[in-house]
């Protein structure tokens, strides 16, 4: 049975309270145990995702999908050397690529699954807006599906223009969708949920609902 072990969350809690190199090195064995747990979860999820989304390469592995815990502090005011979470990214072209995909975030009291396209480059953003404007009914059928709404609510509104994007007028009935600069959805998990023996099933169900959304975005930019 594959789950996120409570000890993994405890390690992250302890790390957030002791985010320094000396503590990390003294607790390296605990980190390695937590990492192996996250890799096992990523492997179980990836096996299901490859069935759902055929664009995910067969060569993609859990090891290639779990993000480094070491922070790049060169250009950050926050000089803590380690992340206080584990991130798992899946897409057709790699975990750190700017492309539609899926993301699992493991952090005490802040775990979630997400999907879509965060901050597309200018040409991709233009293409996605155009596709939404041309094929509004198809897009709305995805994001207004009742199961999708029950799981994610609405699209994230955190990255959005205050004015109309170039080429679109305020009287466009879908202008609020077209103002978005990111197209993402989120579903949060409590600590009890993320450590429950049904978590892989729960994540797989979320991925199944995210897939038509990411597929629409991928088709828009191809």
List keywords for this structure.
222 residues, alpha+beta, BirA Bifunctional Protein, domain 2, four-stranded antiparallel beta sheet, 12% strand
* Beta content: 5-15%
Count of folded domains: 1
Nearest-integer average pLDDT:
95
> Remind me, CATH topology?
BirA Bifunctional Protein, domain 2
CATH architecture field? 2-Layer Sandwich
What does this protein look like?
This protein has ten helices and four strands. The chain has 222 residues and is of the alpha+beta class. The chain has one domain: BirA Bifunctional Protein, domain 2 (2-Layer Sandwich). The chain is globular.
Give a short overview.
The chain has helices spanning 6-17, 21-26, 28-52, 62-65, 122-134, 136-143, 146-152, 175-178, 191-194, 199-221, and strands at 86-91, 101-106, 111-117, 183-189.
List the helices and strands and how they pair.
Elements: H1 6-17, H2 21-26, H3 28-52, H4 62-65, E1 86-91, E2 101-106, E3 111-117, H5 122-134, H6 136-143, H7 146-152, H8 175-178, E4 183-189, H9 191-194, H10 199-221
Antiparallel strand pairs: 1-2, 2-3, 3-4
Helix pairs in contact: 1-3, 3-10, 5-6
């Amino acid at each position: 049975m594959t789950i996120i072990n409570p000890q993994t969350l405890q390690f992250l809690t302890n790390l957030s309270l002791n985010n320094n190199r000396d503590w990390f090195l003294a607790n390296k064995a605990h980190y390695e145990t937590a990492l192996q747990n996250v890799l096992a979860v990523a492997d179980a999820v990836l096996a299901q995702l490859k069935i759902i989304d055929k664009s995910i390469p067969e060569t993609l592995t859990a090891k290639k999908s779990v993000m480094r815990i070491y922070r790049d502090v060169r250009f950050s005011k926050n000089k803590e050397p380690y992340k206080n979470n584990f991130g798992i990214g899946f897409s057709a072209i790699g975990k750190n690529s700017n492309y539609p995909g899926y993301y699992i975030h493991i952090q005490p009291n802040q775990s979630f699954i997400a999907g879509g396209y965060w901050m597309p480059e200018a040409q991709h953003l233009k293409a996605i807006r155009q596709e939404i404007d041309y094929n509004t009914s198809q897009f709305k059928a995805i994001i207004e599906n009742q199961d999708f709404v029950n799981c994610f609510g609405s699209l994230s509104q955190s990255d959005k223009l205050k004015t109309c994007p170039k080429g679109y007028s305020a009287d466009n009935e879908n202008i609020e969708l077209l103002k978005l600069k990111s197209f993402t959805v989120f579903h949060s998990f409590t600590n009890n949920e993320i450590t429950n023996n049904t978590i892989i099933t729960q994540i797989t169900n979320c991925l199944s609902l995210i897939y038509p959304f990411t597929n629409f975005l991928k088709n828009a930019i191809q």
